[in-house]
Design brief:
Elements (H helix, E strand, L loop, with lengths): L9 H5 L6 E4 L5 E4 L7 E4 L2 H21 L10
């Protein structure tokens, strides 16, 4: 992965603010993704639910990749 650095702990990564892209789902509800974290996306019926879900997905993504010892990209500008 490009734009990856070694931070010390999982807590360091969890403190980072990754940009979220929010889309309206044509079938109803919303889809959110964090493009800096490949495959990190979710959906919800409301914006509030979708943002809660993407935060949970971000945490799980970071925990999984950290535990696997893989590189974690930094948030884009």
């Amino acid at each position: 992965m490009t734009n990856a650095v070694e931070l010390r702990t999982l807590a360091d990564y969890l403190k980072l603010n990754y940009p979220i892209v929010l889309h309206i789902d044509p079938d109803g509800g919303y889809v959110a993704e964090i493009k800096d974290l490949p495959g990190c996306l979710t959906q919800g019926e409301t914006i509030e639910e979708t943002l809660k879900n993407i935060n949970e997905a971000r945490e799980l993504w970071l925990e999984t990749v950290f535990e696997l010892g893989k590189s974690i990209p930094l948030p884009s500008d």
